[in-house]
Amino acid sequence: MRIPKLGIVLLIAWAVVGCVAAGATASSLTPSPDPIGLGFVDQTNLEVSLVVNGTVVETFAPHSADDAIHMSALPSLPWVVEARTASGRVLLTMTAGPGDVQTQPGNGAMSYGKEAGAELSCGQLYLWTGTSEPIWPAPGSGSPGDCAP
Question: Do 26 and 40 sit in the same domain of this protein?
């Protein structure tokens, strides 16, 4: 059976696309040498600092989205994590131990351990351990005066 030239071209193109797609999938499953330890979203109008075991690890601008702090920037577990305003007021707190940080998702599943959130009148704060952001509830209303720095 003879295959027309157009058929050969299409067959080669299909094979190349398949190899490229397979390569992308395999590389996306390769563990990162520096996995994510903490994820953070600041949907408020406040500048917020993340403090881990008493030390500021990063400060986020208002309305920051999906920020990640890698394990290399964090102290050894366990952690006491606080989100603080510029004046040092604590907005939320979360503790995490060795079993609470899942750094590699398995079989396409979401991979997170602990999570915490705060509903303020000027927006929401979310914090979690691991590589994937949890699904958060609908925004609440907060309390008057809760957005003072």
Answer: no
**Is residue 144 situated within a structural domain?**
no
The answer to whether 91 touches 120, Cβ cutoff 8 Å, is yes
Give the total number of structural domains in the chain: 2
Residue 143 belongs to a domain: no
Backbone dihedral angles phi then psi of residue 121, each to the nearest 5 degrees:
-65, -20
| Residue with token string 């398949």 | 18
> What is the average pLDDT score of the chain?
77
Q: Compute CA 54 distance to the chain's CA centroid, rounded to the nearest angstrom.
A: 22
Residue 124 and residue 145: Cα distance in Å, rounded? 14
pLDDT tens digit sequence for 73-131:
999 999 999 999 999 999 999 999 988 876 555 544 445 589 999 999 999 999 999 87
Token pair recorded at residue 52: 């881990």
Residue 57 DSSP SS3: strand
Enumerate residues 6+ apart whose C-beta is below 8 A from 144. 121
Residue identified by tokens 């990640």 is 68
- Single-letter amino acid code for the residue at 69: I
The pTM assigned to this predicted structure is 0.71
